[in-house]
Amino acid sequence: MIHTKEKKFEAVFREHFKELHGYAYRMIGNSDAAEEIVQHVFLKLWERDWEKTLQSSWKAYLYRSVHNQTLNTLKRYKLQQRYEAYQTVHAENLQDLPFGEQELKKELHAALAKLPEKSRIVFEMSRFQELRYKEIADTLNLSVKTVEGHMTKALRHLRVHLIDYLTVLVLLFTYKL
């Protein structure tokens, strides 16, 4: 049965990869990024119970998934470009700060260690593993509202404990941690 499931998944992959790659490429204009996007979609599908997840046609589901993943990738690219432009303009100001990136990471991890365990785990899954609240809720067997509550608690805690680092934290956290 496992071999049948793998063969079926491979057949779906082979049948749709090329056209999905072309679709992502038209949206993003980069062949390597398009390939990565399509592979990411298939990886996420494989990690889920993919035969039960799908309730519409394979083609519609895959195109929607690639579309959404491509939009997310484009948002990250734009955000990264804005950050790089900001960093170029403000590089001198960042060098004048009394602390470095390593100290900031150390303070962040120290502040995270002071959080209640569930709030810390939810925060790390959201920010470090880039999982959505629904995915976190499913993984931890919590409601989405509970995950939101833990994130609110974690962010409030970090704002209080890292107030001196907040500006740099926002910039660095998005791109380097």
From TrEMBL:
Residue runs in coiled coils: none
Domain (RNA polymerase sigma-70 region): residue spans on this chain: 13-77
Spans traversing the lipid bilayer: none
Keywords: Sigma factor, Transcription, Transcription regulation
Pfam families: Sigma70_r2, Sigma70_r4_2
Residue stretches making up the RNA polymerase sigma factor 70 region 4 type domain: 106-158
InterPro entries registered for this protein in UniProt: RNA_pol_sigma-70-like, RNA_pol_sigma-70_dom, RNA_pol_sigma70_bacteroid, RNA_pol_sigma70_r2, RNA_pol_sigma70_r4_t2, RNA_pol_sigma_r2, RNA_pol_sigma_r3/r4-like, WH-like_DNA-bd_sf
Family: Belongs to the sigma-70 factor family. ECF subfamily.
Protein name from the UniProt record: RNA polymerase sigma-70 factor
Gene source species: Sphingobacterium suaedae
